[in-house]
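Notebook, bench 3.
Goal today: get a predicted structure for RNase P subunit p30 from Diutina rugosa so we can plan the truncation constructs. The sequence was checked against the plasmid map this morning, with no discrepancies at the termini. Length recorded as 274 residues. Pasting the sequence as submitted so the record is complete.
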Amino acid sequence: MLCDLNVPWPGDFTRKPSADEFRRLRQVVITLSHLGYTHIAFNLTVPGDSKITSPQPIDVSIVKDIPIKVFTRITLMVSDPAQCHSIAKLNNQFDLISIQPESEKALIFAAGLDIDIITFASGVKLPYYLKHKTVCGATDKGIKFELPYAAMVMGYEPLVSTPVGSPRTNFFYNAHQLIRSSRSRGLIASSGAQASSQCRSGHDITVLLKTLGLDSARAKATVSDNPERALLRGRLRIKSYKQTVEPVDRDRKRGGDTDAVRLLKRAKLGAKQS
């Protein structure tokens, strides 16, 4: 299972994508499929104070002919905790809910929410220092932290440094911050690709993250196990109450006796015979 949970959706709640945007989106999905990805998510990114309407605007049917499983995701860009009031409305509209905190205060608040992913702007240097307590507290709850790599592979690197840094430099800075503060746990790597040239294979991403300090197993998990757990968390949020799952006895569901009942009957039979 190979996952990319951040394929940007080009429209929003007020505007549908153009024909050219649909064409580029399909090219990205086709490329990811050829690279071996099996699960992706169309990601709708909106400001936290946006008006949320129903139904959600993502149309996964535009790629139904491509052999890949598609999910829906929304990312709210939040600078103030007060902007998170609309999250409850989104539970049944999207498979994944993500927060992009633009301040440390928003990050601390997001770490306590019932969401799936915390992400950061691709190629933009984090404006605050990531602390172990905040990040590890969120990962202990099952929230994943996303590292979008599109800015790193865009191919443009200015010869003269700028005050805000180049997208590639900022990517490496953010990656080191995330790996350090999370103690290498609960990370997912996603493309954030708006063009097919920005897509990379799972092997390439694994090699990149190993050079940044992750061991082989955790580097592979960023595009496989960890995204899968994020998808499962999203489904449990939709299908269960506070992620409570009722165990189903397979024997009883089939109408037969459970192992415990069979043992009890055997014990009673033995007592009668003796």
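The chain has one domain: 3-239. The chain is about 35% helix and 15% strand.
Flagging this for group meeting.
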